[in-house]
Amino acid sequence: MLPEFTARGLRVSVIKHAHHGFDLDKPGKDSWRHREAGATQVLMLSSDRWVLMHELRGAPEPTLDEQLLLLEPCDLVLIEGYKAAAVPKLEIHRPSHGKPPLWPESPHVVAVASDVGAEELAPDCPLPVLPINEPARIAEFILDYLDAR
């Protein structure tokens, strides 16, 4: 979806929630040693990019609203995860994975992108069912949905 939105001239940011720990750093590097020594924040930068790592050190995980405030101004923020957050969601659902869909239980799902058609997905689905392999159609739906709000 990112290439689809950026090709339209949009500035897009992404928030991805991980349900498990992760580390972008490598043991033995200076930045890793600084964090291990107790630094709360380590900012690494080069001529190509920068990253700010923040150690929670027992503090609560920031809310989605708090995380959004950390982002620079942009046209669109894509959020991965946060199934319970009260934000509009496009559910990605592949029946072949054997997991139940979220849309029947989540009032925040506004459409479903799937690798099967609406009849095969669920004949009673009241939401738009979009073809998962057609990112241009999904992008159009998202932008139309946002304009309608």
From TrEMBL:
Annotated Molybdopterin-guanine dinucleotide biosynthesis protein B (MobB) domain residues: 1-115
SUPFAM superfamilies membership: P-loop containing nucleoside triphosphate hydrolases
Molecular-function GO terms, alphabetical: GTP binding
Highest taxon, organism lineage: Bacteria
GO biological process per UniProt: Mo-molybdopterin cofactor biosynthetic process
Annotated Pfam families: MobB (PF03205)
Protein's name in the database: Molybdopterin-guanine dinucleotide biosynthesis protein B (MobB) domain-containing protein
